[in-house]
Amino acid sequence: MWQQLEAGPEQGNSGLPRPAEPPLDGVRIALPPGPPPSPLTRVLSGRRSRRDMTGPLPAADLAAVLGGLFRAGEPAGSTSPTCGDTCSLTPCVLAEDVTGVAPGLYTCRTPGELLAHPSTADWRRRVHERVNRFLRRPATAPPPPALVLWRADWPRIMTRYPGRGLPAVLWDAGAAVQTAYLLAEERGLAGCACAGLPRGAELRELGWEPEAHAFAAAFALGLRSPSG
Q1: Where does the record place the Nitroreductase domain (predicted)?
Q2: HSE-up of residue 217 (Cα within 13 Å, Cβ side)
Q3: Which end of the chain is more exposed for a tag (fewer CB within 10 A), N or C?
Q4: Could you tell me which residues are beta bridge partners of residue 153?
């Protein structure tokens, strides 16, 4: 499924079917105005995809975003937002230009700590090139300073959610990406969801079998470029 979704860059809006619209003579109901904006709604109003990013990304900013992906009071190993104790989605970080963090792939099982996972420079280059292409960044542009990847553990989630593990992963991934957008906006960072996820043979290079694991979502993170 992931391969089909990532078969190529999006084609734009031309040629899309018209959206299904309600009949023009349908009942219209005016909704009352909402309450005054809160800090959260102000962050929501500024949220957007920001592909133009640069480094180095301060480790404290990366830690703030990663820490916000975990629910307060959850037991160690439980990831946000709704994965519970099955750890069905585990945040990983592909670091490239983060202060105090060597380039490489890391797993984040608890807030405030990264655990290095073996990866080769060639593996990282291939992933970065594909991510840059999906972000529509110039071929000469450096890769995002950090890429957050959410890894699904199929055996665990299919045991917890028999027959409906895939929707659970998609729900969790969508909520996690939106949480990352809010956290990046709150910190004044550039962030953008992206495709180009490691898959197939690339997972095997990491020691993970595609039948048991998959990256469900990715989020590029960095400092906002002066031009952006």
Answers
A1: 143-222
A2: 22
A3: N
A4: 213
The per-residue pLDDT string of the chain (228 residues; one tens digit each, 9 = 90 and over) reads: 444 544 555 555 667 777 776 666 767 777 888 777 777 666 666 666 677 888 899 999 999 999 888 866 665 555 544 444 455 788 999 999 999 999 999 998 887 889 999 999 999 999 999 999 888 888 788 999 999 999 988 888 888 888 888 888 888 888 889 889 989 988 999 999 998 888 889 999 999 988 888 999 999 999 998 865
Token pair in block for residue 80: 């946000």
pLDDT of residue 90: 87
Sort 174 into a burial class: Cβ within 10 Å, 0-12 / 13-18 / 19+: middle
pTM more than 0.85: no
Residue 137's closest CA among 196, 65, 62, 208? 196
Which residue type sits at 130? R
Scan for tokens 């900013």, then name that residue.
61
Answer yes or no: are the C-beta atoms of 69 and 92 closer than 8 Å: no
CA angle, corner 37, sides to 34 and 38, nearest 5?
120
Q: Do 185 and 14 meet the contact criterion of CB atoms below 8 Å apart? A: no
| Distance in angstroms (rounded) separating the CA atoms of residues 190 and 126 | 22
- Taking the alpha carbons at both ends of the chain, their separation in whole angstroms is 33
What distance in Å separates the CA atoms of residue 222 and residue 109, rounded to the nearest whole number? 21
DSSP secondary structure letter of residue 226:
T
